[in-house]
Amino acid sequence: MLTVVVALSAVAGVALAVAGVVARGGGTVVLDTTDAIAATPPSTVPPISATTVPEPVVADADADTGFADDGAGGAEAPPITGSVGDDGPTLSPLAELVGPRYSAIPPDVEPRPRPTGVQISSVDVARFPVRDVGLEPDGQFEVPDETEIGWYRYGATAGQPGATVLAAHVSWNRTVGPFARLGSVEPGDQVEVALDDGTVRRYEVVERTTYGKLELPRERIWRTTGPETLVLITCGGDFNPDIRRYLQNIVVYAVPVG
Amino acid sequence: MKKLFAGAAAMAAALIAVPAGQSGAQTDADIMLLHGIPGIEVDVAVDGAVVVPGFAPGDMQDLSSFAGQTLTDLEVRVAGTEDVAIGPVEAFDVPASGSWTVVAHLDAEGTPTITPFENDTSAAGDGEGRLTIRHTAAAPAVDIVLGDARPVEGAANGDSASLELPAGEIAGAQVAPAGGDPIADVPTVTLTAGTNLIVYAVGSLEEETFTFYTQEVPLAAAAVPAEGSDGTPAPTAVNTGDELGSSTAASLALFAAAAGLFGLTGAAVVLRRRTVEN
Question: Region B133-159: what's the mean pLDDT?
Fold first, then answer.
């Protein structure tokens, strides 16, 4: 009980402090209940509870009515809130003003399967591991070095709605990159994506398009909603030696098959 | 019963410890009461009648419509009974503005206590959200572990840390005593663009009630997303090649910048390493 005493002391102390700065309502609730009352039919029905009700209330909670309410009286009594169970306490009209209740208990969510490898029928890329990547601090795509393919973790994953984006260098570190030959991939080519749950998702290439670096179609590529699409990206086109970058992106689109 | 009453005491304290709002003005406010003490269910009564019935651990009750108001004769009762555990509190002043989560929780030693947290609802970047981590558990200071990185270190009970991150799944995080080995998995969560996702560590390590609660608070309107966007973060560019034989200085600089950043940005770098090792 020591804890209770301490807590009560704290409560009293704070209450006094609050009372010192708050204009008080003489023991009444200073809250405007107009909306709540308007939302509930005016109750002229006297308390119909068979049990003792300590003081009049605006309307009887069904909790106290028990079996005594079988009849017209019970039918007329407007329920103040339907969410309270039969064993609930007498409710204040203020309960109508309380906002929704939510649960803070998070659902038990399994992490999404992640791509671990990709194979293209016409180009040998299967030896390059796939790892998840995000964004560089400056907002650019975090492209792995020439030994790996990057799966964009802020996009979709294979088998789920949206666009699953895999990107890799065409060239880097004086070496050809994993997607060096992406520009030769043609519609009809088959693509397989291996996932870390052991499954393999199959796709068929439907399009290859070259875009200016600033012209990637956001609504097609950066999305986690809409039709499932596999998007493979590398660089291509003209090379600008001043910034040592290509001016275009080669993008291959594939759709699920089978 | 001692524990139960102690918890009810904390709940009453929660209701009076909300920072006082500015007098008179009833402005926009978002006020949520979070029950963060496992094992205790209560009713909250005002002026003799229950206002919040059956308030269970993990419940959040939106009290925003009470913003700027004063409640009188506040009581906390053992749920479903007339037993007054705490109160009456003569007057309770509800804040009038801001976004607040008032959390009844255990302190580091396991004693029920109350911490009002103001939620940062300032706008994040396009495609980004804010991840907030709050230590409200009976546990010593902890680190958040993500792969080989510890984006949050030495967070003590009552601490709150926020990071702005691209929207997306956050999986594989763990909690460890500061400097120690991981002891619990943080649930997989999905950060939505334009929201503050708040993760609370609650309960007691000693009594094996340690767990996590989560809350989402919308942020102020960010920059209007690009046309056609569904909120998925979009890179500014995909630079997937240099000339054969060129210097890698630029990429090394980028990597160094990424590695030097505090927070989950650093963790992302480590996630990369971890995946490589797989």
Answer: 93
Token match 């209740």: residue?
A101
Note the helical H segments in chain A. 2-21, 34-39, 72-76, 218-221
DSSP secondary structure code for residue A222 in this structure? S
Q: Of A205, A197, A201, nearest to A232 (Cα)?
A: A205
**How does pLDDT run across B233-256, given as a tens digit for each residue?**
888 888 877 655 333 333 333 333
By CB atoms closer than 10 A (0-12, 13-18, 19+), residue B119 is buried
ipTM score of complex: 0.71
Count helices and strands in chain A by DSSP H and E runs: 4, 11
The answer to whether the CB atoms of B61 and A177 lie below 8 A apart is no
Residue A224 has a pLDDT of 92
Given CB atoms, is B78 within the 8 Å cutoff of chain A?
no
Residue ranges in chain A whose pLDDT is less than 50: 1-86
Q: Could you give the CA distance from residue B142 to residue B182 in angstroms, rounded to a whole number?
A: 9
CA distance B59 to chain A (A): 5
Contacts of A223 in chain B (CB under 8 A): 229-230, 232
